[in-house]
Design brief:
alpha/beta; eight-stranded parallel β-sheet; about 475 residues
């Protein structure tokens, strides 16, 4: 029994089931094409997407430029070539059925140049652009240039109102839908504002109603809202379907499409998803973007947490209780700690955490020498994958191409770890422990949902058929 009917989106009637775009190589042309072929909206990630050689093997994204700006240009070229390849694959598989969207992150490095470069070379193959991670004011302008629909991702009616008033009201006919992404339940980066408590999730229903109220004020009564974040089974959202307070609605699935035959993530990642337990997805603020994000609480996340906990404030001059001199770096340049903090530092040093690294907040963190080496090497090798990065202090904006702050060793190189986990070997369990593994907070349900009994991994077609039953 189908619990939801087709919806008008992007100029045609489609199943209101949307594949979440996700980030680096976690959705691609194969997954998106098959999702569209099944009658829904497939979404490939245009965030440094993969290209392939003549044998169909992934081309490693290796950087040769001497400067960060040189490597940033290489990254943009990789991203455009990969996005074009994934768009073509999605189209070849779908044959024009359903819709194919490209997902970009507004705060990724060179976002406008990347999506423009992809759309210039894939005319007629991409039906829409989905975009979040920031306030993408220029999204409507890009959509208008290529006559494709656009789908901004927001976490509140207030955010959409700001986008509408500044830009979107000028390109109303191409607004295909508005994605409401729940900032507490979604995987990857989350749109929590400073006024929202990460420890106290809010019910999405009144937030959706508030978003629809804002949209109606702008005459967008029939523009679909796409519910994203925390969506597992439609039976759990019956009160939202055919609800006059919410209006036309579709549902975006980010986590469940990871576990399909066509999903591009390695088998070792899929195996880990099948074993997750409740509470193993961790909402954190370690991302170099500065946003909160949701990821599996593996050894990678634990090391970041431990790193930040080995932290003390310092003063450049003796003042107040900061009277104990401590030498930092190879030259042992003096800073001043409190006596209790100095005692903690001595304890950390005895345990092997002998390297003190300065943060932008006048604190020191303490790590082992090999970790200090890795942090420094990753910062030096920055390729500008974000518009601004607090880990390396990169900024894509001239003239200085830095964010004006000290590089922050409490964060990490997000491009490196996402590429490493996405391209891990099928049996590489260590890669699953030691890299960033984004996941929605429902990911633990793979282990208890009878659909996945005995390690069953469905095709995209089988998953879509299952979703239409409400399960």
């Amino acid at each position: 029994m189908t619990v939801i009917n087709a919806i008008r989106m992007g100029g045609i009637d489609v199943l209101p089931l949307v594949e979440g775009g996700k980030g680096v190589s976690a959705s691609n042309g194969t997954s998106a094409g098959n999702w569209a072929l099944a009658g829904g909206v497939g979404t490939f990630s245009a965030v440094n997407a993969d290209s392939y050689d003549e044998h169909g093997r992934v081309i490693p994204q290796i950087y040769h430029g001497r400067t960060r700006r040189d490597r940033h240009e290489e990254l943009i070229n990789y991203a455009i070539a990969g996005g074009v390849e994934q768009a073509r694959r999605a189209w070849d598989i779908s044959g024009g059925r359903g819709r194919v969207h490209a997902n970009i992150l507004w705060e990724m490095g060179g976002a406008e140049r990347v999506i423009t470069g992809i759309l210039e070379r894939t005319k007629g193959l991409v039906n829409g652009i989905t975009c979040g991670a920031g306030m993408p004011y220029r999204l409507s302008e890009i959509a208008a240039k290529f006559n494709v629909h656009y789908y901004p991702i927001v976490s509140s009616g207030r955010a959409f109102s700001a986008l509408w008033k500044r830009a979107y009201s000028k390109v109303t006919h191409l607004l295909g839908g508005v994605v409401y992404e729940d900032p507490w339940l979604a995987g990857g980066h989350n749109g929590l504002s400073n006024s929202e408590d990460p420890e106290h999730p809010e019910n999405p229903y009144p937030r959706l109603v508030a978003l629809r109220k804002v949209m109606r004020e702008f005459g967008l009564n029939e523009t679909p809202i796409i519910m994203a974040g925390g969506v597992w089974a439609l039976d759990e959202w019956k009160d939202y379907i055919d609800n006059p307070e919410i209006g036309p609605i579709a549902f975006q699935f980010g986590t469940r499409p990871l576990l399909t035959k066509e999903s591009p993530i390695p088998q070792s990642w899929k195996d880990r998803l099948l074993r997750l337990k409740p509470g193993e997805v961790f909402l954190n603020k370690f991302s170099p973007t500065g946003f909160y994000s949701s990821a599996v609480n593996n050894d990678f996340m634990k090391e970041l947490r431990d790193r930040s906990e080995r932290q003390v404030a310092y003063s450049a001059e003796p003042v107040g209780e900061h009277l104990v001199e401590y030498g930092v770096g190879t030259r042992k340049r003096p800073v001043y700690l409190t006596a209790p903090d100095h005692a903690r530092v001595r304890d950390w040093e005895e345990r092997g955490f002998t390297e003190a690294l300065r943060t932008p907040d006048s604190t020191l963190i303490f790590v082992a020498p090999d970790k200090a080496h890795d942090i420094h090497e990753d910062q030096v090798n920055c390729m500008g994958c974000l518009s601004q990065c607090r880990f390396s202090n990169w900024s894509q904006h001239p003239p200085t191409f830095d964010n004006g702050k000290r590089a922050d060793p409490r964060s990490f190189c997000i491009q490196k770890t996402l590429q490493d986990i996405a391209h891990a070997a099928p049996d590489d369990e260590a890669a699953m422990d030691n890299n960033l593994m984004f996941a929605g907070h429902n990911a633990h349900r793979f282990a208890s949902d009878p659909f996945y009994s005995n390690g069953f991994i469905p095709t995209v077609k089988q998953l879509v058929e299952r979703l239409l039953t409400g399960k």
